[in-house]
Amino acid sequence: MSHPSFIAVDWGTSGFRLWVLDACGKTLAETDGPFGMSNLEPSDFGRVLEENLNELGIGQDVPAIICGMAGAAQGWCEAPYLTAPTRLDKLGAGAIRVSDASREVRILPGVKQQSPANVMRGEETQIAGLLHLVPDFRGIVCLPGTHTKWVRVADGAIIEFETCMTGEQFAFFSRASVLSHSMVNHGWSDSAFEAAIRLAADDPAALPRRLFAIRAGMLVGKQTSAQARATLSGLLIGQELMSVRQYWTDQTVTLIGASTLCELYLTALGFMGASGRVTEVSEITLSGLTAAYQHQRRCFSS
Amino acid sequence: MSHPSFIAVDWGTSGFRLWVLDACGKTLAETDGPFGMSNLEPSDFGRVLEENLNELGIGQDVPAIICGMAGAAQGWCEAPYLTAPTRLDKLGAGAIRVSDASREVRILPGVKQQSPANVMRGEETQIAGLLHLVPDFRGIVCLPGTHTKWVRVADGAIIEFETCMTGEQFAFFSRASVLSHSMVNHGWSDSAFEAAIRLAADDPAALPRRLFAIRAGMLVGKQTSAQARATLSGLLIGQELMSVRQYWTDQTVTLIGASTLCELYLTALGFMGASGRVTEVSEITLSGLTAAYQHQRRCFSS
To answer: Which residue on chain B is closest to A161 by alpha carbon?
Structure first.
């Protein structure tokens, strides 16, 4: 293969994804694993990175650029936040050098917002990637996941953003709460999902009393496990959409995230009379990391 | 002490409480422990009961009456549900006999509601206790806890009810979610609680985007751990109240539950222009178990 030029890593709460790239930005190798911040101590990050690069046969002369929770206070090395509104071409310039790494490693900053208080780490790099691919992009970006972000983008900058813990709530309710007894298999029901979206749209404040009804519907009725799971998903995504109406009303939302999850958001937006389009998340992430690396490359020794 | 006549047990999801009573209903001994359904296999219940009674020196000739999750499908022995609307003087008559117990043990039925689907196990006995103490009671009963119940009571009967998983959600968010990093101590702020109640009342649909703000408020602002904990509690209780407005509007709510938690609900109701009164939960529970036992005593052999 051609000579590796740099390593790009999206290092999140629950997992990490790594690409090895040549000087033209072509991917030479890639890997991923469940080595997220929540599973690591700060002292583990360097070892995990080197183990993965050893397996790929990458020498220590190749520098790495990282985005995401590796830069959090509980991560590898705390990277500062840019403050929204903020242009994203500053992202590479804001990277910090990790001192206890056995190669050149830099972590990109996150973005914070003072009022209402909010933070992101990783999504800013994906939005930078979108802007790298579509420089004049302006509009609303939704990044569904553990902590779904809604971001208003204009003039190459993040203007404002919101966070909803929808993914983390779905994981809790479906795996650890009393509702988990009603979701013993991984089935799905489109009609139950759509009905739940409509319920949430009609009366978003009713969510607290609708959640337990998922369990009760199985105990006293004929609800299936597939219906229960889809109802939970629809109620949570529906309630999220209602809480961020000001973001998507009269907009076409650009969705960046896992394709199955993005399709659910697309369906939900459609039922609420809005529209969206799904982008390819790997391409966007890699584009953002590459743009930040290129902007910052003069700081790397190799 | 005078001769034990019967044993009353409130056996819930997370713990159990047991009283030994004489023929006049006077408490001779009592105990409790973390032996809830979620910590036990069905085959454990009999052993746990006997171990606790052995420690109190109670012979096997004394019968026991039990309410709560011991009667759930995952409990000791499944007890049927009464169907709301239902009078509660039927509670004792609906008790089932446990076949694999080394003494006479009966478990009281729960109550189900077909539409909207709902279930309770244990709270019906507390409401029966309230009706035993105040036979002409009519109005709204709120039983705050892991799964808070809102119950409309009239003519000695449960007319209808709702369930909100507020306690389970608070436990998840404060102990296991990303918000737990902002609640490392157990402090409290009355003003943060009140502000959160007002936020929930003003815009109950906004909850999804307000939760993560608790974490962000600590990362980018000056929020304390005490403020974070009280804000989470206020948002969840406030959102619950907004979802069951039809229960408390123009009513005085009778609260049955742990006193600290009942006081929070009382405060929240007050901020929403409603009123409530707190009852003594042990007295109510014991009254319900005693009434059910006395109604059913002809079925016991001793």
So the answer is: B209
